[in-house]
Each structure stands twice: as structure tokens, then as C-alpha cells.
Amino acid sequence: MSGISKSIVLLVMTTLCIVFVAGRSIGPAVEAQVKQDGNIDEQQQDVCVLIEAFVVEVNLPELYKQGVSPIGQKPDSVSVENILKCLEARDIAQVTTGVKVVILSGQRGEAKITETIYQERQVAVPSDRKVSRAVRYSNYDIGKTFRATASVRPGGEILVSFDFKESTYRNISSTDETPPNTVSREWLGAVNLHAGVPAIAGATQNEETAVFLILCADIQDR
After folding, report:
1. Is 33 exposed, middle or buried (0-12, 13-18, 19+ CB in 10 A)?
2. What digits encode the pLDDT tens for the residues 46-100?
């Protein structure tokens, strides 16, 4: 066998040995990484997540005084910081609803409350009767439902899918038979949240008032 042929055979054998050794060394490493990733997933499924939802009503003119764009144009779109500043002042903003649930990562939770409000109403009495006035009560049903699913991601973000519904009344008068104004809201969607950092998940507005749905998620200590 010539020197060139021997060199080729030796090179082939050496290459095969390298591939064989590399294959043996890479296999366990990949398997260990898969097991490690699997352990991370199992740990994430075992994590409890607190999800809070707040409805905040803000006076629009006061919000615009902070330089917020009326149509949400960047970089002047409304932020949580703008809303917090309004909450610090009186008669500018208020939290009208707050609800929270604690669930396991990857699971679904629900919080629901219904109330019945009884309002006293005066009833006209004929002048020939001895009593000066008569009273009766009208009842109004209000409530809210908050459903959410949370999934903790490897990077630390929390993916929250939510469904928030609310029904309430405004300006219930006890002096006449005028029906009260009703308000119904619903927000449905999904948002990525950083643990402990509130974010705007939905909003509506009319001529004078903007209403925001603020969501906050945090990982509970065991």
C-alpha cells in the first residue's frame, strides 16, 4: 500500500473515531438538557400566581393636562403612571372595582360577586289620608365576574388570558320613578405581564370619562 493510501485510510479512521466519540459525548448532554427543561416546566406548573383586576375611572380633561394624546398617539399614549397621578388627586380619578384570584400556572380561576341594592322611594299619598308619606323599596341587581388563566414563561413573564364582565347602576334617585342609568362593561383578551408590574389591559371612554381595566400579576411565595 502506498504512502498516500495509508494516509487516506488513517484520516478516515481518525474521522470515524472523532464522530463516534463526539456522538457518545453529545447524547447524554442533550438528554440532560431535555430533563432539565422538563423539570422547569414541572416547576412552573407548580407556581401560584396572584392576578388582580382594577377598574379605574378618570376624568378625561385632567388626563389630557398631563400631555396624553386624545387618540393614543405614541409617545403620548396613556400609561399606568398617568393614571396613578390622577388617583393621587381628589375628584379626578377613582378605583370603582377591584377583584383578585390566585391560581396555579396553567390553570383557570374565577371570582364572581352579585349584589342586590334596595333603594328607598317615596310614594305619593292622597291628601285625604292621614299619613304624610308612604315608602316602598325598589331593588337593583349588580355584579362582576372575572375569569383568568395564567402561564409563567421561562423568561419570567406571565401570560394572562382574561374575561372581565361588570354591570352596575348610576344615579339611582329616591325622589321619583325615573329608572336608573345602567352600565355594562366587558373586556376579553390576553396580555404579557411582568411580575408585580400593573398594565392597562382595556379601556373605554365617552366625552368626559375614560374607564381603564388594570391587570397585575405576581408570583406567590410558597
Report:
1. exposed
2. 889 999 999 999 999 988 888 888 777 788 889 999 999 999 987 899 999 999 9
